[in-house]
Amino acid sequence: MRAGSSVKWPHGLFICRFLAGAILLIAGSAGISGRVFAVDDVEWVRGGGFEQGYGDFEVYRYPRFSRDNASTPASRVELGALSGRYSLLLPGMDAGGYRFVFPQYDLAADSAYRLNFRIWSPASVRVQAELFHGTDNISRQALRLQSGDSRAEFLLPTTNGSIGRIDQFANEYRVVLRIMPEADMVIDDISLAGPGRASTKSGPWVELTPDSLSGIYGIGGTGMMRVSADVDIPLTYRITDVVRGIPLTGNGTRPVGQNGIIDLITDKRGAYLVEIDAGDSDGKEQELASRRYIVIDREHTEPSAARYGIAMEEHGQKTHVDARIQAVDLYRLAAELGAGSVRIFTLAMPDIVSADGIHYDFFQIDRALELCRWYGLDPLLELGSNLPNRIPAWLRTSESRPDTIDLTSGLATKELRDRLARSGGGKYLDLVAYERYLRRVFGHLGGRVRYFEIWNEPGHKFLPEDYLKIARLTRKVQRELAPTAELVGYSSTKLPWKANRWSINNTLPGFLEAMLSMDSGSSIDVLSYHSAHAFKFLEEGQYDHEGSDETGYVDLLRMALARKGVKRNLPIWDTERGVLWASDRAVTHGSETDFLEVARRLPGIYAAGMASGVERLFWFFMDSSTSTIAKLIPRYGFFDANLEPMPQLAVYDAMTSLIGNARFDRRVERDDGLQIYFFENQEDTILMAFNWRKQESSFKLEFSGAGYQWLDVMGNGVMAEDGAVLHTRKEIKVAGWPSYFLFPGLRAAQVRVPEFGH
User: Fold this and answer.
1) Domain for residue 55, yes or no?
2) 695, 631: one domain
3) pTM recorded for the entire structure
4) Domain containing residue 233
5) For tag attachment on the chain, is the N or C end more exposed, with fewer CB atoms within 10 Å?
């Protein structure tokens, strides 16, 4: 059967394969000699038989688009179930596969655990089991299961308790099972057995499943959550507004019906939390499960603006996406959120090129560009990655020649240099091979793509003089094969570069300064920077983090351009902007940003960027479900590691709905943290006001006309004291969350804040 083809599952087929018997395959692990499994070993996985739902692990897919455009998601099936009533059907994939990420476990040290599962497929299946200790991968085992009915078992060893550099995770383990099916297959009876109390698995198992893309709904539409449970006890639920902390189901909870369906409340835009409770033996309510959902305006009245960008990192493009989400859904969602441009990493990934570096597979990028065309998204494509393992072997050589670059010379840490050395393929970038790559890329894409970024964060990898060679080579090939294209660079980011050392000082990052001295901007048409990283360090004292937001850093960029004599009026883009966060489901440590802080700060970040003259700002990024690492450390993005939409997604949607293509007029601010941004479109004036210090502050307005609409951060109208839609009150009070004030039919000059003189 052809790889990736669809398989029918008649009962007769299953009877035949059961009669054929099962194949037992065991992947052993060295260092567990004499291990005897005790009779009291516990089962750590709940829901591994798929009888009530998808189990308590997440299922991700990391595909390229299938060549036959098959988009059937992973789903529970009854017909042909391997055991019990249900199994999980995984559609075959042309390339890539599925990742099952298990919950975090407090496993016993210096022990072994049995990972078991059952598979049936008409073709062979590659499987791989990994065990992470904290963030360290301590075991990786793989095998190939033959066609038919197979049972597989992996023995996964734990460590002696030491974890190296991340001691706070000393007892935290996570299992990842990867499955690469060549054709449609079913899996069942996933289990993990071994010593311990499995304390994280005590109590009833309940799962909530939304009936839309990861729980995203349109305002005023219908939606529901399906409740699956392994207990037959009365369950109740409540729905809470995440931002306001207000329950929408009254003062108490409501019973979950016998059909297990919860009708969602969608009459207001925002972020909401559904919680499932049950009474314990003492009559107290016990929370059993919860899941967020988002309500947005899916039909914006204005066309999308390119200045609202979203980074479609490989996590959102093809690597770590929920098995129930297709890439087409993510591109469509970007357009529905009001984004007009996307930053795509596909060209930076090694798997589009054969091992010889000559044969290219453009299917994925062609499909991505087709989706951009469908949804009106302007693509920005990356031409290289800063991560060592993403520089493929065909681009590297062990020879030191005039046409090569030492890939280790610009790396900041020994850890990165060692990682590159372990990845194989040589330590020098082969510029001959890179030029061949550029010629194939520009030749194939022709006039379909206007913007290309010359490597991602090159200051993390290259010395300035080495990056100069890459930039000039890229410019030469672009002018020859894609003369209408424009190049984006130098991607100034993070810490200042100086003498191959990274340190915080009061100057602009030295990497950018060096590039301007040597190149004067001749190799680029757009100057890019990454404030997602820069502000993490600027906030340590160099600049007032939120008070300056974009402005402090962008002013330094402009000063550097002027100081180095760059006379061209280069557009400035922020191609990676985000705020570090940890979800309420993630492991939090230190004083990391609460996930609601991201939603609170997002509108001000975009407004400050517009005030600074930043033409495009790409939020980093669409999907942050990076499995193991995402669950343990803070990250960025619109989805958490559980594939639940975050509140900032709804905030982004409201911002683009209200400001849209409006022209930035002016900004006023006060020392107490008050900031007010004025925007003007063809018909109305919109103000965005908030106090970035999160304290209440007042200001007075002067305006003509009948009044104004007051809208919250989600775009919902705030009624006046008398119940009217339009407010007339002249004294306004705001705090940390942005509010919008829409003045119908007025120009920006007709709305004044007297204390600022205009």
Assistant:
1) yes
2) no
3) 0.82
4) 206-296
5) C
Higher pLDDT, 321 or 397: 397
Longest Cα–Cα distance of the chain, Å, equals 87
Relative to beta strand 261-263, strand 285-296 is: unpaired
> Which of 569, 608, 575, 588 lies closest to 692, judged by CA?
608
| Pair of tokens at residue 524 | 């680029």
Bond preceding residue 621 cis, omega within 30 of 0? yes
Same domain, 711 and 593: no
* Torsion of the alpha carbons at 723, 727, 729 and 732, rounded to the nearest 10: 110
Residue 480, SS3 per DSSP: helix
Q: Locate 85 and state its tokens.
A: 């009533």
Amino acid at 65: F
Q: Rounded CA gap, 625 and 635, in Å?
A: 9
Query: For residue 499, is pLDDT > 70?
Result: no
Q: Residue 575's domain is classified under what CATH number?
A: 3.20.20.80
- For tokens 């001749």, the residue is 522
Q: Band of the pLDDT at 281, cuts 50, 70, 90?
A: low
Q: With beta carbons less than 8 A apart as the criterion, state whether 53 and 228 touch.
A: yes
Residue that is written with structure tokens 């009708």 in the block: 263
Total domains in the fold of the chain = 4
CATH number, domain containing residue 151: 2.60.120.260
* 400 contacts: CB under 8 Å, gap ≥ 6: 406, 428
| Tens of pLDDT, residues 139-148 | 889 999 999 9
Decide if 189 contacts 83 (C-beta within 8 A): yes
Would you place residue 513 in the very low, low, confident or very high pLDDT band (cuts 50, 70, 90)?
confident
